[in-house]
Amino acid sequence: MGRVLALLGAAALCVFLTASSNLQQTSMQGLWAEGSPDSWASSLTGLAALQDASVGFMCPMDRDVSSKTPGFCPRCGMKLVAGIPESKEYPVTIAPQPRAIHAGESVQLNFGIEDPKTHQPVRNFEIVHEKFYHLFIVSQDLSFFLHTHPEQQTDASFRLGVRLPKPGMYRILSDFYPKGGTPQLVVNTLMVPGATSGFEQAKLAPELAPQHAENIVVELVSEPPQPAAGQKALLYFRLRPNDGIEPYLGAMAHMLAASSDLVDMIHSHPIQATDHGAEYKQLQFNLTFPSAGVYRVWVQSQRKGVVNTVAFNIPVGQN
Fold first, then answer.
1. Among 65, 104, 152, 217, which is 20 to 30 Å from 87 by CA?
2. Contact at 8 Å (CB) between 225 and 317?
3. Chain center to CA of 11
4. 133-150: burial string, b at 16+ Cβ within 10 Å, e else
């Protein structure tokens, strides 16, 4: 019931926001790969899962990763820090130019990030995976996916030019790390008016067959074979051939998972990459899907300088 109310509230908010010049974020924040940081647990060679953030050095994003000495997170590449500030959400506003967004036409999106303590624009950010700002845009039917990087302006805002291909709702996930703060995943909603601009949940059929991209084929193997809501699932993506596969934006791959109603959006990176000869490279993601349903999961990797994007529809059962 709570998810239904959240969804209806988001849809109502979208209708209101289309008449406004500044598009505020909804109350929902993006999800880390395995729930809240305090709930994560894993075992990595040479690292310990510490509950006490004051002990040793910890990754500000993957808080289960810690070390007794300074260094970098083997999972996301972030610098380990000695102390992590209290987590606070940084509000994000989106101002489109022109204000009226039309399907298939260019629009400039201006992103403003506010310090929750001072209520002033945030100007300084940590570089995460080679960029200050990672942005994901997904259409309500989940047919449109974009992972891109707005550019910072002299007034501290970030700017992006984009074409949204069809009327309807778009979810926008902002991923950034303010200096002195904590890594942020913030979700906004945009509505593009038109004949089909009302909300209609995407109807996804399971799609688990190997996917062909620009110059690789990606196979998915999951453990358990049928993931269950609220339970950790191990997702193994096998990239073939294992020739020239290289890091993309500081990680071996980037993943975005979205529920068919777009209430849940999860951003993740592989916790392990293993070579299986020349046949394939296997990337392991650990994910906890919040609810039952079908999730659209995009995975991006790079081979010989070419970025490959594939998508699977993964059914998630009740716990």
1. 152
2. no
3. 21
4. bbbbbbbbbbeebbbebb
Structure tokens at 58: 């910890």
Q: Which residues pair with 118 in a beta bridge?
A: none
Q: Which two tokens stand for residue 159?
A: 């700017």
pLDDT at 256 over 90: yes
Amino acid letter, 14: C
Tokens of 303: 């081979």
Residues in the chain: 319
Neighbours of 120 (CB within 10 A): 9
% pLDDT > 90, the chain: 66
Q: How many angstroms separate the CA atoms of 20 and 112, rounded?
A: 15
Same domain, 175 and 234: no
In this prediction the pTM is: 0.80
User: H/E element holding 212?
Assistant: strand 211-212
d(CA 259, CA 227): 14
Residue 62 lies in a domain: no
What are the phi and psi torsion angles at 148 (to 5°)? Answer: -145, -175
5-28 pLDDT per residue, tens? 344 344 433 433 333 334 545 433
> Does one domain contain both 188 and 217?
no
Q: Which DSSP state fits 204? A: P
Name the pLDDT band for 87 (thresholds 50, 70, 90): confident
Q: Are residues 275 and 188 in the same domain?
A: no
Q: Report d(CA 258, CA 319) in Å as an integer.
A: 19
Among 307, 189, 290, 287, residue whose Cα is nearest residue 246: 307
Which positions ≥6 away from 166 have C-beta within 8 Å?
Answer: 103, 104, 139, 141, 144, 192, 194, 196
Question: What's the domain range around 258?
Answer: 211-316
Q: Which residues fall within 8 angstroms of residue 189, CB to CB, at 6 or more apart? A: 10, 13, 14, 17, 23, 26, 169, 170, 171, 172
Q: Does residue 251 sit in the same domain as residue 222?
A: yes
